Amino acid sequence: MDPMEAILGFAIMMYMFESYLDLRQYTALKSPTLPKPLVGVISQKKFEKSRAYNIEKSRLHLVHKLVIVLMDSSLLYFGILPWFWKMSGEFLVHANINAENETFHTLAFLACLMFKILITNFAFSVYSTFVVEARHGLNKKTVRSFSWYILKETILAIVIGAPIVASIIAIVQIVGPYLPVYLWTFNFVLALVTTTPYPIISVGFNRFKHLPSCNLRGKIVTLAWALNFPVKKLLVFPRSETPRDSYAYTYGILKKKRIVLCDKLLKQCKDDEIVAVIAHELGHWKLNHTMYSFITAQILTLLQFGGCTLVMNSKDLFLSFGFDTQPVVMGFIISLYAVVPLQRLLSFLFNLVSWAFDFEADSFAKKTGYGSPLRAALIKLQELEDLSSINTDPWYDVFHYPEPSLVQRIAAMDESEWL
């Protein structure tokens, strides 16, 4: 079998498996009854609104994924990728730009692929925001604010992405058989640069405030000191400037660590419940979950770059995709298709470990005396999630998400009877 056809076959098989999980999730969302932990907690009216919204969102997701797999399959099967590569080179020639420079050629090629992004991401994002979310009263964006957000994302991708692409191409062209090690080193340094200073820098660009002196502040500091967590600052951030499922987190290096709280967490929960959420986060730190996750991610990244190297060194594989040369960017694109089944499996296993870490952190909070307040806080946080999924399929969740849902955590607490 032709290598391209085999890779395409793997991609379609993965799509069929994920569609099976999507249908399981769709069936779970249609369940007309509340999960046992939320009976009497979530009103029937809010449950019905959540159910209607997530069913419609799930239908859109199924259509979105179908469009993606059809476009990706067409790009591979009909030789559109090599045609884009050829056309981008001709464009550079007409623009009097050196088409022999692989960096320039690659950037022009990626620009040609923007049409796929517009169809598979932007168009669906517009429909989801201004039709689906608007219909259910969730859209708070205007056309102007949405357009400005997309423009900022595009500019950021160009400003940051272009130097990264150029650096990776230079590394591939210079380095010999130790390419995976060098690529991993580059990625490792990039991860340190972006994850270590970023939270500190973000405080300057976002509306973070210091938690004022109060009884809650004293309880948090007391808990942190009791666990030998060297807290330097306690900050509060607006809910609008964080992922929807993030209510508290810790960051920092050496003896200058920060604890950051969501403002809605402060408004919704009592002091002991807030401290219980912090105890969960400190459990991750105390049990070295963050370090283990980072190390695991780096090992997986090294293996992934090793796979990329095998792909980029295979002339026959490039020929099967219609390329008589071996551009670096296509090596990465082909490797993404080639390693999808293994990557999905490893991601699933990683999620299993991550779920175990979350349950361990919940148990740690219990051992510090905050079991009952944590359960109460999780129930209140579920109420904060505007029309979030309430009935979900566990197979779908563990395959797609690195953390269990609030409902699943509450159910685990009830089953363990450790309160």
Automatic annotation (TrEMBL):
The chain crosses the membrane at residues 6-23, 66-85, 105-134, 155-175, 181-201, 291-312, 332-357. Proteolytically removes the C-terminal three residues of farnesylated proteins. Zn(2+) binds at H280, H284. The lineage of its organism: Eukaryota, Viridiplantae, Streptophyta, Embryophyta, Tracheophyta. It is an enzyme of class 3 (hydrolase). It is found in: Endoplasmic reticulum membrane. Residues 25-201 form the CAAX prenyl protease 1 N-terminal domain. The active site is at E281, D362. Gene3D superfamilies: Metalloproteases ('zincins'), catalytic domain. It catalyses: Hydrolyzes the peptide bond -P2-(S-farnesyl or geranylgeranyl)C-P1'-P2'-P3'-COOH where P1' and P2' are amino acids with aliphatic side chains and P3' is any C-terminal residue. It is a multi-pass membrane protein. Belongs to the peptidase M48A family. Residues 217-415 form the Peptidase M48 domain. Its cofactor is Zn(2+). One of its GO terms (molecular function) is metal ion binding. Its main location: endoplasmic reticulum. One of its GO terms (biological process) is CAAX-box protein processing. One of its GO terms (cellular component) is endoplasmic reticulum membrane. This is CAAX prenyl protease. Binds 1 zinc ion per subunit. Keywords: Endoplasmic reticulum, Hydrolase, Membrane, Metal-binding, Metalloprotease, Protease, Transmembrane, Transmembrane helix, Zinc. Its EC number is 3.4.24.84.
